[in-house]
Design goal:
There is one protein chain. This protein is mostly helical. It has a single domain (2-203), classed as Arp2/3 complex 21 kDa subunit ARPC3. The protein has six helices and two strands. It has helices at residues 2-12, 17-33, 49-78, 86-103, 115-151, 160-203, and strands at residues 37-39, 44-46. A two-stranded antiparallel sheet has the order 1-2. The longest helix is centred in the C-terminal third of the chain and has 44 residues, at 160-203. It is globular, with a radius of gyration of 18 Å. The model is unreliable at 110-114 (pLDDT under 50).
């Protein structure tokens, strides 16, 4: 029951103007940083997943589910290169769902520097790391590769298994960088969000 309540609580955020404005801003950020990639020779680090992860963390699985789809649609409308493939939109919605389920309202912030604050940082880091691992394995490696194979993108005579194997190597090389990045950035985002909007709520 608690699991389903999380979705209903998240759905209420859709009627909150602040939630919609922040979500819209993060969707715009996702699109803006999509083109920023760090080339390391053996891997590429892209930061676009941070925005959808932040939406899931702040507003839950219902909001991040739809936000993931909107991010995909916005990207296509901005650069409509070829036909539209709705399967990729569904996959993007699944990505948002992962972050919303694992990170939404799981922990509360505590006083900076306290033992509870350090415990919060550790537990939230673990949750975010797990979310990123599931995102990489389920979304990047399995779903996106299967969609590419289904539509014939990058197949070049290879089997689905061969494509998954190649993508697995690439993603596993990038994963440690992603885990560090998501833990550091999103905990900072959450603390800043709670500081700004928590004070506003108290003042009201």
């Amino acid at each position: 029951m608690k699991f389903y309540r999380m979705f209903s609580e998240s759905a209420k955020e859709l009627s909150n103007l602040r939630s919609l404005l922040v979500t819209g801003m993060l969707i715009a950020v996702s699109y803006a940083i999509e083109s920023f990639t760090i080339e390391l020779g053996f891997a590429k680090i892209n930061f676009a997943f941070l925005a959808i992860a932040a939406i899931g963390m702040l507003y839950g699985p219902t909001v991040s589910f739809f936000a993931g789809g909107i991010c995909d649609l916005v990207g296509y409308l901005a650069h409509p290169d070829g036909a539209f493939f709705p399967l990729y939109t569904l996959i993007a919605m699944g990505q948002g769902l992962i972050y919303g389920v694992l990170a939404y309202r799981k922990l509360r912030l505590t006083a900076a520097g306290s033992a509870n604050s350090r415990r919060f940082d550790l537990e939230m880091s673990i949750r975010l790391a797990l979310a990123r691992v599931l995102d990489v394995v389920l979304i990047n490696i399995i779903c996106n590769t299967a969609a590419n194979y289904h539509y014939g993108f990058g197949v070049n005579g290879r089997t689905l298994g061969a494509m998954i194997a190649a993508r697995t190597v690439k993603n596993l090389i990038e994963l440690p960088f992603d885990i560090v990045l998501i833990a550091v950035v999103l905990i900072a985002v959450l603390k800043a969000y709670e500081t700004v909007f928590g004070k506003q709520k108290a003042a009201a």
